[in-house]
Amino acid sequence: MLLTDSDALFHISLARITFLKFEEKIFLSKNIDNSKVLSLLSIEDIEQLLKRKIGKNAVWKGKENLREAEIALHHCKRLGINILLHSDRDYPELLRQISDPPYLLYCRGNEKLLGQRSVSVVGTRRLSPEGKKAAKEFAYQAVTDGCNIVSGLASGADGYSHQGSLEAYFDYIEKGMDVSRLGRTIAVIPSAIDEIVPSVHKKLAAQILQTGGLIVSEYEPGMGMANWHFVARNRIIAGLSPATVVIEAPAGSGSLITADFALEMNRDLMFHKATFGKLAEEIAGKLNARLEADFALGRVSKYKVENRPEKFLEAGAPVISDYKDYLKCLAEAPGERLPLQGQLF
After folding, report:
1. E strand or H helix at 340
2. 70-86 burial, b if ≥16 CB within 10 A, otherwise e?
3. pLDDT tens, position by position, 141-153
4. How far apart are CA 320 and CA 325, in angstroms?
5. Cα(307)–Cα(296) distance, rounded to whole angstroms?
6. Where would I find the H helices in 52-201?
7. 190 near 218, Cβ under 8 Å?
8. What's the pTM?
C-alpha cells in the first residue's frame, strides 16, 4: 500500500512516540484523525484515550514531534526511502507475528526480499579465523541456494555474513552466470535509516544496495541513536526469519539476546560448530573472565553472565556444521539431533 503524504506523516508521528506500545499506536491510529490532531493532544489526553497512566519519565511535545515527523518525511522522499506500515501487504508476515513488531519499517533497497525465504545469522564481534570463514561460507552457500541472509551490519559475524552474500553475487557476475535466482542480504540497522553504524561499514552498506539487497530500520531519517536500539534491532533480526544461526558467541554477547528472542518467537535456533572451536573457546574464556569480574563489581547483570551458548545447548539447541547441515537440521524431527553432537565433529 502506498501511503499518501498526509497518512505517512500521521504514521511517522505515531511511530516515533517511544512510550507507546505497538497495540496503543494502532488504537490511536484508529481514534485520531490526523497528525495535526495528534500534535495538539496533551499527555493527559493520551492517558485518557489509552485508559492508563504514562510513566513520569515520558516526554511528550506534540508540536515538536510533528515538526520532526515532517522533516523525516521530507528526507524519506528525498532519499527514496520506502515506508512500510504494519498493515501493508509487503510488511513481512513473520515479523508481524511477533509480540512487539515495529509499527513502521523504513526501507532502502528491495523491500520485496522481506517476504522471501531467509535465515538470520548473528554472532560476536570478536570472531576467530574459523568463525570468519564459517560466517562467510554459510552466507555464500545460502544465497546460492536462493535464501536471503538477514543480519545486523555490525562488526564481526554480521559483517562477514553480509560479505559472504556479496561474494556469491560478484562471483556469479564474474562468471557470467544468472544472478536472478540468488538470494540477497538484508541488513537490519539500529540507527536511523539514513545513517550506517558502524561507519566503517558504509561501503558494505552501499554494496548491499548495489547488488539488490536491502537495508531496513524502524527509525526514521535523523533519529538519534540510543543504547536500547541495539536490543530492539535484535528482535527484528530474529523476527524476520524462521531460523537464527549463531556463529560464535561468548557469554554476554548481544547475539545471544537475539537467540533468546528467536526462542521466545518459537523460531528455530542453531549454533554453528565454529562456536566451539579451540580459538573461539580461548576468546570466550578471556571475555567470560572479564564478565565475571564486572559482575563481582556490580557492573553487569547476572543474566548477562549466565547467558552463554551452553545454556541453549542444554535446552536442546542443535549444532550445525554448514548451510547444508542447516537444511538437514530443519528437516529433522524435534529432538532427533543430540544437543551436543556438533562438538564431536
Report:
1. none
2. eebbebbeeeebbbbbb
3. 999 999 999 999 9
4. 6
5. 16
6. 62-79, 93-96, 129-144, 157-174
7. no
8. 0.93
